[in-house]
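Researcher: I'd like a candidate sequence for this fold, 474 residues long. If you have to choose between options at a position, lean toward the conservative one.
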């Protein structure tokens, strides 16, 4: 059974293999895009400052007004701008309006955002290509008369309406990202009803409630990280064209007293450092894509923790600063947010869902009896409940708690705050009383009910479906 819905947007990033003349055109287009963006941003800032000074006379800036001003002076001021497509500077000016719009939206939402910055050479070099000026023919793309057909490493994977493309530069490599509207057909998931809880951590990249682990190639990444540190030390000893803090006497100056430009050795070494960065990032992306594709194909419902990575990786102050820095580095190396992003967009096409649950006390809660105690987790990998003596891997136990909470069986009765000593004592008494009483059948993930009349409250979860039932004894 399938149901046709609106198309979903997909992007395919493919590496380009241009010749020398084609690469020269791509560099020129990136330079013109950068020039138009900086001109529009400077004009926007100037007009907005005049508007704040006299709101009755000067109106607020807009990208369409800037576009008309740019078209009126571009032929006289920049006659070489006709060497590339007119859509390159036009879309760059539109990007200025989009950047300011995102800035104001972020402020209204309460997020800490920065103002749009001027573009510089070597950072995020790219330009826009409209769908009317490009053609695709297998593993090659046509970008207009000035550039012709450029080879691609592979053909486009998606079938649908091509919306646009973006040509970008990453080091010495060129890429095209083609956006396609793919018809979305909602189908039944190949594993209906299958669900899993995922715990993302430092020791293991991902741990499932089925007691499976997904890990990064640690040995390979550590070797590359050591190489990267050595190359970065070499880069720090090259002349970058800027005065380092506390080393003004070592700055290189010419006969006129002006600072010399960055050295050729600095340029060569920076390329080596960038190449290692890209290699590490590609290894991480490969593991994440393989893991997320496999999880989406095996499970219909995937439950993850709603982690605030920005707060978790905030720099520490005072004692323990270096240890916290190492933990932050390991957490960022796991790419928690990127893992969740890939799950969400892949599960949309597979007919499943991703549910984020509250991560509070998932690593301190016993998945069998529900006892919440910091002493339950003895080490980084060992979990032993102080109430029912349940033993398990700490990450597997947390993944099972995430699964239980995501299913909605025990979540309403899980404490949001750390339980008191009295509450923990009651839980231990309930488990001990049940161990001494006669055996009876219980659901494997239900919270155990105490026979001790001193226990005032207990939680019973239904066997199949439904909300948990909270009963009180007087």
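Model: Candidate sequence:
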């Amino acid at each position: 059974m399938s149901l046709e819905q609106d198309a979903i947007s997909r992007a395919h990033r493919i590496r380009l293999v241009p010749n020398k003349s084609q690469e020269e055109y791509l560099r020129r287009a990136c330079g013109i895009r950068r020039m138009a963006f900086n001109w529009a941003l400077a004009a926007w800032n100037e007009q907005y400052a005049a508007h704040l000074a006299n709101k009755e006379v000067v109106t607020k800036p807009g990208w369409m007004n800037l576009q008309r001003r740019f078209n009126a002076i571009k032929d006289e001021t920049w006659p070489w701008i006709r060497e590339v497509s007119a859509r390159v500077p036009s879309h760059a000016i539109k990007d200025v309006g989009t950047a300011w719009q995102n800035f104001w939206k972020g402020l209204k939402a309460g997020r800490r955002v920065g103002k749009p910055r001027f573009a510089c050479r070597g950072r995020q070099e790219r330009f826009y290509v409209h769908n009317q000026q490009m053609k695709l023919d297998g593993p090659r793309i046509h970008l207009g008369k000035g550039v012709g057909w450029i080879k691609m490493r592979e053909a486009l994977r998606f079938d649908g309406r091509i919306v646009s493309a973006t040509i970008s530069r990453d080091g010495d490599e060129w890429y095209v990202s083609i956006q396609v509207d793919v018809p979305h057909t909602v189908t039944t998931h190949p594993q209906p009803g299958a669900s899993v809880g995922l715990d993302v951590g430092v020791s293991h990249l991902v741990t499932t409630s089925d007691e499976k682990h997904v890990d990064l190639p640690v040995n390979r990444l550590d070797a590359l990280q050591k190489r990267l540190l050595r190359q970065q030390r070499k880069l720090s000893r090259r002349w970058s064209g800027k005065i380092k803090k506390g080393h003004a006497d070592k700055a290189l100056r010419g006969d006129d007293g002006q600072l010399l430009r960055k050295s050729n050795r600095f340029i060569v070494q920076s390329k080596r450092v960038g190449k290692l960065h890209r290699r590490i990032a590609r290894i991480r992306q490969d593991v994440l894509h393989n893991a997320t594709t496999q999880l989406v194909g095996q499970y219909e419902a995937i439950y993850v923790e709603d982690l605030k990575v920005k707060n978790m990786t905030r720099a520490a102050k005072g004692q323990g600063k270096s240890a916290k820095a190492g933990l932050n580095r390991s957490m960022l190396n796991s790419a928690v947010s990127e893992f969740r992003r890939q799950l969400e967009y892949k599960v949309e096409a597979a007919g499943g869902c991703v549910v984020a649950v509250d991560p509070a006390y998932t690593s301190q809660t016993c998945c069998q009896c529900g006892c919440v105690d910091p002493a339950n987790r003895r080490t980084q990998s060992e979990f032993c409940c102080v109430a029912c003596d349940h033993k398990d891997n700490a990450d597997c136990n947390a993944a099972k708690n995430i699964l239980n909470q995501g299913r909605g069986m025990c979540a309403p009765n899980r404490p949001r705050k750390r339980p008191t000593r009295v509450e923990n004592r009651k839980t231990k008494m309930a488990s001990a009383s049940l161990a001494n009483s006669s055996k009876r059948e219980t659901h494997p993930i239900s919270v155990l009910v105490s026979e001790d009349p001193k226990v005032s409250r207990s939680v019973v979860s239904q066997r199949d479906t439904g909300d948990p039932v909270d009963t009180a004894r007087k």
